[in-house]
Amino acid sequence: MIAYQIEENLNLEEFRTILINSTLGERRPIDRPSILEKMLKYGNLIVTARDNGRLIGVSRSLTDFSYCTYLSDLAVDQAYQNMGIGKELIKRTKQASPDALLILLAAPAAVNYYPKIGLTKYNQCYILRDLMDLS
User: Fold this and answer.
1) Domain spans, the chain
2) Is it the case that residue 44 has pLDDT exceeding 90?
3) Element at 21 (helix H, strand E)
4) What is the pTM of this model?
5) Which end of the chain is less packed: N or C, by CB atoms within 10 Å?
6) How far is the C-alpha of 108 from the C-alpha of 112, rounded, in Å?
7) Full DSSP string of 22-54
8) How far apart are CA 20 and CA 118, in angstroms?
């Protein structure tokens, strides 16, 4: 049975491992522990999925618990994908901040997943990677 919970002190190595096991590590700084530490420190809503204590899924968000929740990382171990765990992690993230709009940027491989589970696609997203890019 999969156990879901909000965790305030997720272990750095567990976080790194789930990023790798989910393939999200391909787009995250898994070789820079100081950045991963800050991701955990400042992500103020972390929902996990565990199978007999083993971390198999994580939803890491930043939220004000009233207006918006930015779901930054949704990672499910590849061996556990297609079992509804990602959807349940999103559901529990939303339940923890029910009044806030849940926002996420889809990984390229997940673009078709989110509409299937009920999220609405918007094209009005913008990204600024470097301050020097501002004109």
Assistant:
1) 2-133
2) yes
3) helix 12-22
4) 0.93
5) C
6) 9
7) HTGGGGS-TT-HHHHHHHHHH--EEEEEEETTE
8) 26
